[in-house]
Amino acid sequence: MATRPDPTPPVGTADPMVFTVEEAASQLRIGRSTMYELIATGEVGSITIGASRRIPAEDLRAYVASRRSAA
Residue 6 — left, alpha, or beta (φ > 0 → left; ψ -120 to 50 → alpha)? Predict the structure, then answer.
């Protein structure tokens, strides 16, 4: 009987599902304050996990796509 490979990639090799505010700002090459403004205005979605604010990778991609279509 063949065994199936583990579908979970090793830690540190997969793209992150969520970013901290600082990581998200770094991904967009903007400042932390600007990132907080984008979150506050709803331009970039975010979630809370416990007491921490996180930005899903999909929300960053959606924001960039919306900016591209607006240009």
Answer: beta
